[in-house]
Amino acid sequence: MKFRLLSLYPDQMNIYADRGNIIFLRNRCLWRGIEFELTACGLGERFEPSGHEMLYIGGGQDRDQRTVAGDLVETKREAIGECLAGGTVMLAVCGGYQLLGESYESGSDQIGGLGLVDLKTVRGDGPRLIGPVAIETDLDGSRRMLAGFENHGGLTWLGPQAEPLGRVIAGHGNNGSDGFEGVRSGNLIGTYLHGPLLPKNAWLADHLIETGLKNAYGEDVELRPLEDGLETAAHRVALAAAISGR
What we know:
four-stranded mixed sheet, Rossmann fold, alpha/beta, 5 helices, 30% helix
């Protein structure tokens, strides 16, 4: 089997160690004997919707987010929509997460988004939402914990058609008010958790890999377990940091 990952705007949207997530996905594939193929799609470039098990977009500074926003809608929205309709996995982190919705508003300035999920983001008047965060999710059918780090000035609000990724146990989440973090829609996940996210939550990395492979090769795909002593320790440390700061 081959796991093919398409990274969107890796030169612009890589402020929060986003390459660490890609490296982690690659290693967990290779350790199982699964071939891993990474391709990139940047400014002005289009891609074919077929041929990818996963799409990935990370976070960027405001100026980078503005740079890619128009290009994302103009050159990639249709292909991303086709991928998601076909069951392709997608992970969007921080700035990439904000661009999934209708818009990012900052005063009189508004950045248009993909409009793929029912959410909008506005620039908060208060301090940035920063610190360790832990959420509870039932993404894989059982209640699990995700731990990470958040650092965002934008406040994201989910509309009635959007489902949160999880419930905030510690930290701020989408907006510091409603108790939700992230969004999920089919095989699409958007989240503010970074730092990077996946090395601290190996089970989520495996969920993404297995879901992508099942979509490509059939429901019989099942990942063999790995020796995850270090990964388990990383998760415990990240979770403890969030809980202790609650």
